[in-house]
TrEMBL record:
Organism: Sparus aurata (Gilthead sea bream)
Name this polypeptide is given: Beta-glucuronidase
Gene Ontology cellular-component terms listed: extracellular space; lysosome
All residue ranges annotated as the Glycoside hydrolase family 2 catalytic domain in the record: 309-610
Activity-regulation annotation: Inhibited by L-aspartic acid.
Domain Glycosyl hydrolases family 2 sugar binding: 25-209
Cross-referenced InterPro entries: Beta-gal/glucu_dom_sf, Galactose-bd-like_sf, GH, Glyco_hydro_2, Glyco_hydro_2_AS, Glyco_hydro_2_cat, Glyco_hydro_2_CS, Glyco_hydro_2_N
Coiled coil start-end: none
Family (UniProt): Belongs to the glycosyl hydrolase 2 family.
Catalytic activity: a beta-D-glucuronoside + H2O = D-glucuronate + an alcohol
Length: 632
């Protein structure tokens, strides 16, 4: 498999990093903001708001970037707004970037939900469909046109979801005038999280020389003591010419080098990349320094973890050792910020993950910020990387236009995340209507495409369908199943969990003979609600649900169950509805990241699992230190 990697040519999307040849200027902070609340939701285009300063078109407010705009003000209409919102900011561009024609100046948006159009000084420079992946455009020639005018960046973002977007949605106009005023419409969504919108991740300008390292792809493996780094560098703006590639270890010592744009670097006495709790030194990263030697030199440094991933009919192997996923599903979600990128939140979440002994998470239900994956690389947290294919329920969302967009999104996702050692599997969808007849062609095409893009990682999607009716399961490498026994059906009947869960596993394994991850299970618990015997929504009920699942996992993990991911790491916001009390309360932490009782149950379990399944064994001192502190 490893030898047959097909290098598809896509323009690169390397994470912007500073280097001797590259500068980065963050544009985070306050932007001017205005929502287009005209009845036809189109006045901003009719009046060409991009042509002048936003403040000259009407009243603007301060809006932080990055952040969702929804929870920033006291205005319920803005919280629930559907349509175009406009962001604008004037940027002072360093004089040298303008005067030096040999400098490329790139504007990059980490993510904006959902559809974005970008203008610089009133000139449209790019547009992008999709709310969770970065996009960028070179703006050097534009800002050089008139170096005396400031650089005015205008970004219009529209959060409307339709049957062909990912995730899909539907807009319905309400015609009954006895109930709804003229123009009243509803955005229907088929997923269970608030459709937060705005500029969610950092916006920045960065430079490269005219001839620059556009993309790097690495695929790693090892043979005995030697690490193997297969790589390919692509250069834009000049013929590739001579380049130099140097792989350095953590101490900055060169361990392998080459002057070819592609090849295999061999690392003697390799330090492999290991998951957290599987090794005393997890998340080991080398640095790959890539230099071009065309008149102006460029340099880019890529972190590289050397590891292998493989799947058998009963196991998930990392570096040829069985890996058991004991982890969580997350959301990018918090008070006030919504889905806005926030380092404090990210670092807190990693501290909580490590505290509870989680070795993995799934990026339910969309790609997370690249900075989060970088943290995973460094801390050895294993990732199932999910695309935004959530809520594909309407048969029309299985049509050609939807599929074409889904394939494009996978291109963008793999291009962005292919070099992260933490990413061990792609998830192409969550709970699609995989029993519908078109699902067979849809998933066969989608999964095959993903494997063509990246033959080195297994591919899955997350099912809640019945094993006998699921049309896509034959194409996945790992079966991922969500189930909510004693919750969404047989409510209150905790005693049924073992029987139903056991049958779930036996049926899926019996039919497909593929390893299984319990990719979601859980129950809502309103923190502070108690009842014994347990009733739904109390902390006790959540605990018993978890423990009942765990007893079955403990039998099946000896056979073919390769992981368990709790739904959810933390409480999160949803649309208002009868089954949600200020959001989804299935978190084992509150939205403010305080533990419910269930967090301690998972913590005890995960550390025990780490001791049993982290095959390399941790140094005894590590274990004892925890055993002393938490004597379970
Ligand atoms: C699952 C969905 C997840 C929901 C969860 C729930 O995958 O997005 O939040 O149910 O209902 O089916 O809590």
């Amino acid at each position: 498999l490893w030898c047959t990697v097909v290098w598809r040519h896509l323009v690169g999307m390397l994470f912007p990093r500073e280097s001797p040849s590259r500068e980065v200027k963050e544009l985070n902070g306050l932007w001017d903001f205005r929502a287009d609340d005209s009845t036809n939701r189109n006045q901003s285009f009719e009046r060409a708001w991009y042509k002048k300063r936003l403040a000259e078109t009407g009243p603007v407010i301060d809006m932080p970037v990055p952040a969702s705009y929804n929870d920033i003000t006291q205005d319920a209409a803005l919280r629930d707004f559907i349509g175009w919102v406009w962001y604008e900011r004037e940027v002072v561009v360093p004089a040298r970037w303008i005067s030096d024609e040999g400098t490329r100046v790139v504007l990059r948006v980490g993510s904006a939900h959902y559809f974005s159009i970008v203008w610089v000084n009133g000139v449209k420079v790019t547009q992008h469909a999709g709310g969770h992946l970065p996009f960028e455009v070179e703006i050097g020639s534009l800002i050089r046109k008139d170096p005396t005018t400031p650089c005015r960046i205008t970004i219009a973002v529209n959060n409307t979801l339709n049957l062909d977007t990912l995730p899909p949605g539907k807009i319905q106009y309400m015609e009954d005038r006895t109930k709804y005023p003229e123009g009243f419409f509803v955005q229907y969504i088929y997923f269970d999280f608030f459709n937060y919108a705005g500029i969610h991740r950092p916006v920045l300008l960065y430079t490269t020389p005219k001839a620059y390292v556009d993309d790097i792809t690495v695929v790693t493996d090892f043979l005995d003591n030697a690490g193997l780094v297969k790589y390919k560098v692509s250069v834009q703006g000049a013929a590739t010419g001579t380049i130099s590639v140097t792989l350095k270890d953590k101490d900055g010592r060169s361990v392998a080098s080459s002057s070819k744009p592609s090849g295999v670097l061999k690392v003697e006495d390799v330090n492999l990349w290991w998951p957290y709790l599987m090794h005393e030194n997890p998340g080991y990263l080398y640095s790959m320094e890539v230099r071009t030697h065309i008149h102006v030199k460029d340099m880019y440094t890529l972190p590289v973890g050397i590891r292998s991933v493989a799947v058998t009919s009963t196991q998930f192997l990392i570096n040829d050792k069985p890996f058991y996923f004991h982890g969580v599903n997350k959301h990018e979600d918090s008070d006030i910020r919504g889905k806005g990128f926030d380092w404090s939140l990210i670092v807190k979440d990693f501290n909580l993950l490590k505290w509870m002994g989680a070795n993995s998470f799934r990026t339910s239900h969309y790609p997370y910020a690249e900075e989060i994956l970088q943290m995973c690389d460094r801390h050895g947290i294993v990732v199932i990387d999910e695309c935004p294919g959530v809520g594909i329920k309407d048969i029309r969302s299985f049509g050609n236009a939807s599929l074409a967009h889904h394939l494009d999104v996978m291109d963008e996702l793999v291009r962005r995340d292919k070099n992260h050692p933490s990413v061990v599997m792609w998830s192409v969808a969550n709970e699609p209507a995989s029993e519908m007849p078109p699902a067979e062609f849809y998933f066969e095409t989608l999964i095959k495409h993903t494997k063509d893009l990246d033959p080195t990682r297994p591919v899955t999607y997350i099912t809640d369908s019945n094993y006998a009716r699921d049309k896509g399961a034959p194409f996945v490498d790992v079966i991922c199943v969500n189930s909510y026994f004693s919750w969404y059906h047989d409510s209150g009947h905790l005693e049924l969990i073992p029987l139903q869960l056991n049958n779930q596993f036996e049926n899926w394994y019996g039919k497909y003979k593929k390893p299984i991850i319990q990719s979601e299970y859980g129950a809502d618990a309103v923190p502070g609600l108690h009842s014994d015997p347990p009733v739904m929504f109390t902390e006790e009920y959540q605990n018993i649900v978890l423990q009942s699942y765990h007893s079955v996992f403990d039998q099946k993990r000896k056979q073919y169950v390769i992981g368990e991911l709790i739904w959810n790491f933390a409480d999160f916001m949803t649309v208002q509805g009868l089954t949600r009390v200020v959001g989804n309360k299935k978190g084992v932490f509150t939205r403010q990241r305080q533990p419910k009782r269930a967090a301690f149950i998972l913590k005890e379990r995960y550390w025990r699992l780490a001791n049993e399944t982290g095959r390399l064994g941790l140094p005894p001192s590590n274990h004892q230190c925890h055993a002393v502190k938490y004597p379970w």
